[in-house]
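User: Could you check the structure of this?
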Amino acid sequence: MLVVEHESDVDAALIGERLEAAGLRVDTVGPDRSREVPRSPAGVDGLVILGGSMDPDDDAGAPWLPAVRELLRTAILGQVPTLAVCLGAQLLGMAVGGRVRRIPDGPEIGLVGIRPTDGDIHRGSLLRGLDPDAQALAWHWWEVTDLPELYDGRPVEVLARSDRCPVQAFAVGEAVWGLQFHIEARTRTARTWAHSDPARLHAISLDPDRLVSAVARAEPTLVRTWSDVIDAWIAVVRRATTN
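Assistant: Sure, the predicted structure tokens are below.
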């Protein structure tokens, strides 16, 4: 398993725990690891692209981003099972010819309801059967828009939305998923982000401590809900290696 980590305080967290529990070997690359991002997933059975605080189009400030987009394109062509989270989902959207933009009404931060569409029935069922009251931690200033219907002949399909974000999850073909929300996040992650720049949260009328407390109360449900989804994705990886 190859994990691309854009910065050390946005680590694999719950995804990493589930990969370890499944007995999978994880290789993590990225700038804070002083390990270059490859442009091809050759020799990799599964690919995880994590989030980060950089803008998805800031190739000057984050010069490894073009390599990540190329890595995603080659993963799609080979249908290497891929899970792209938050910034990763935005980079995936760009890689297939969609657009990214700053959310016009301001960032989506905190626990949000995730409402799956019918599309996931045809895309591996990662979100099928999700509780209608399911929540996840969102923490993004940018969003994916204008996804194409096809990329390299493979369908591109929106799988979930929230009240403020029309594209919370999407699939490219049968093995590549982008999730705008943080499937991996636990209270530890929320606390790190909230306290790294509390003034930025206060500026949009969010109380960092209340936000972290809300995630802490929801953590048992978050872990249970998203562990099931991560495990479903791991099952996709295992099936791909046996075909």
